[in-house]
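Q: Convert this sequence to structure tokens.
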Amino acid sequence: MIGRLRGRVVWKLAPQLLIDVNGVGYEVEATMNTFYTLPLDATEVILYTHLVVREDAQLLYGFASEGERAMFRGLIKINGVGAKMALTILSGMSIDDFACCIREGDVATLTRLPGVGKKTAERLIIEMRDRLDKLITNVSSTSGTGQSSIDTAGVLPRKDAVGDAVSALVALGYKAAEASRMVRAVESEGLASEAIIRAALQATVIK
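A:
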């Protein structure tokens, strides 16, 4: 099991990262909250990781804090919630907002996330409600929650930032047409792809 990586980010295209650890490149998929905090330069970063082994692939997921990883691990224990959906949930809203949805039984907000239908949302509320307090305690007791403001240090706005943002949203589970609509709905001029993605996700969840 790979539990932690310490190295520098040499490539990033949401939600994927390439982390150089002493000359070995690790491909990692990260939540958007983690993705935004990582600089694309010589700065050394630490990622807490979770390895998923399938018959056809070995997938490594990365988190800025142990708390965010704990919430991810709690989510994938729910029947019908795989790693991709857990990553999408933690990308689409903060841990505090997710906890609020669970406590208030807010099915409508949860179903705005891609891949989360009404039955899955109801299952999340029922099963996560019993374990939420323990998970939130784990989040609070570790170094940060993985919820950070946008930090695009070392990331220059790209000519195709809008296209990159659409591709990232598709990778998170949105349909191409829906991803395009979400990006068009936010003011994207001059923004890096990370900022466009964040604005699009926030607009979707809070409307």
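The first strand starts at residue 4 and ends at 13.
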